[in-house]
Amino acid sequence: MKNMFAKWSTLLLMVVVFAACGGGSDDPEPTPTPSPSPSGTVTVSAPVVSDVTTTSAKFKAQVTASSGVNITNRGFCYSTTNNPTTADKKVTTQLNDMQANVTGLQANTTYYVKGFAESALGTTYSEVTSFKTAEASGSELDSYQAPTYVDDYRSIADWSKRSQWNLANVHDPTVVLAEDGYYYMYQTDASYGNAHTAGGHFHARRSKNLIDWEYLGGTMTSTPAWVKTKLNEIRAKMGLDPISNPSYGYWAPCVRKVKNGLYRMYYCVVVDNYIKSGKANTSANFDNSWTERAFIGLMETADPASNVWEDKGFVICSSSDKGKDGWARSNANNWDGYFYFNAIDPTYVITPEGEHWLIYGSWHSGFAAVQLNANTGKTLKELGDPWADSAAGLEANGYGKRIWSRDSKSRWQGSEAPEIVYHNGYYYLFMAYDGLDVPYNTRIARSATIDGTYTGNETVLTHPYKFANSQGWVGIAHCAVFDDGQGNWYYASQQRFPTTASGNAPNAVMLGGVRSIQWLSTGWPVVMPERYGAVPAVAISADEIAGTWEHIDLGYSYGKMKESATMTFAADGTITDGIWKGGKWTFDAATNTLTANGVELKVQRECDWEASPRKHTIVYAGINGAKSYWGKKK
């Protein structure tokens, strides 16, 4: 969720670390007894590869362990280099008799695969097996059919046309891949013309291919009774009158698969009444107080296809470091917020070690991390009062440790929507910056621990942009990041028409956009510029790189659309036109890596959504410092 004041108007249109010194004794500290080294054996058989096509293959292997050794993770890792590790692409499996069907491979390419098993003994690898994918025929690309759904969905935006929505009316999506092979998407209650108000809350849709989405309906029919009860319990402790008819907003769910047969949805309900009087948030009712707190609740289901979720109640709420009485607001232009942690925008992480964590927060003072009870999904530590006299006091009360802040001195900052995923030894924090209408952009940081210090140069991964022959897109952030279990990663978010587009309320158009993520050799992710279109992964040659491209520098510029400019890669490896004119380029076909003017760029085939008719093309994305670069072959 957001700067709630700015966002509501838009939507109407549509440790401390303490080092102890031993109590003053001069006695030498005792020598610690070393822990015994783990013992036992683990073996993994060499993978057997079968059913190899241009873009897929099946792997099979077996893992065995001696008595007492617990296998915590197992699967296959594969690469175009001859010594793959789990730092490369990998797919995990559930059984000792491991089997996996891997897709998204490059045609006519030699791959190397190993089985692996993780335990207290470390990571055990099998011997390597190599195979080569089949050579693709030009007919695969020649017969490619691009997605046909319209971007301007205003003619079908209303509730009666919901069966035609596909990715229309998507806002703050969260995506999970379920056991039945469907991707399920859920979202904030927001839509063009507020069409969603007819059908409950936290609307669902599903897809098998990430292109064609079936609308399923709301997952919550009415506000859970616990929200009002908990709100007024807190108000009573603050010495305030109860609110008999709270005004609610429904925001930013996060869905994860916990295990087969168990899925959890953390959702947000915001109470939009003034703290002092309990009156609805209108300028006429302003009473020199901040508006009330937000609540995060939990629902569970065994089967997302049923769209039946059981509410499990309260998890956490907004909390203040200004005590229970510090909610006064001098005027409507005072942004020194009462709440320190805003209970909005949850992301749910299960670590490789099996710990469960909730990270949440928006605007206000940054993001908080709270450990959860794996069995209940509620906070591991019992919560105290949602107020204290300091941030340290809030942490002691169980409301979390701050892990990120855009500006540690600001109580009202344009950062929100944390989304954390684990990849190859790091937790990657994707987050949204700035107002959602136009300037919304995605930033990235990472940490070696889930609640550790997240570092990075806040690289811009998405930004308002415009390729030629298009009106461009703005408001691209608040993302879901997910994978298919086979090493392929995706980014899903809303995207909006710019304010300059034609027609009624163009900036209230909220279309869902799914894009591919690629990972650089440095470990950092890049979001590909064009939406995912299931273009056949036919191998790309250096000859195809040569030619004219549309290049976009995504260096940060608040609220400005970054427009493409022509750049030409000559066949002799030089750059003869564009911002990098005079530089050189090389292409590694084995890793689909283009190095241009010293910048590492990941290259892949995607749909050209600006072409008429739409067609396949080649795109790139890369990072240099705090900016990303996007490109599309003309």
TrEMBL record:
Residues 1-19 form the signal peptide. The active site is at residues 172, 416. Keywords: Glycosidase, Hydrolase, Signal. GO terms for molecular function: hydrolase activity, hydrolyzing O-glycosyl compounds. Pathway: Glycan metabolism; L-arabinan degradation. Pfam families: GH43_C, Glyco_hydro_43. Residues 43-136 form the Fibronectin type-III domain. The record marks 345 as: Important for catalytic activity, responsible for pKa modulation of the active site Glu and correct orientation of both the proton donor and substrate. CDD domains: GH43_Arb43a-like. GO terms for biological process: carbohydrate metabolic process. Belongs to the glycosyl hydrolase 43 family. This is Arabinan endo-1,5-alpha-L-arabinosidase. It comes from Xylanibacter ruminicola (Prevotella ruminicola). The lineage of its organism: Bacteria, Pseudomonadati, Bacteroidota, Bacteroidia, Bacteroidales.
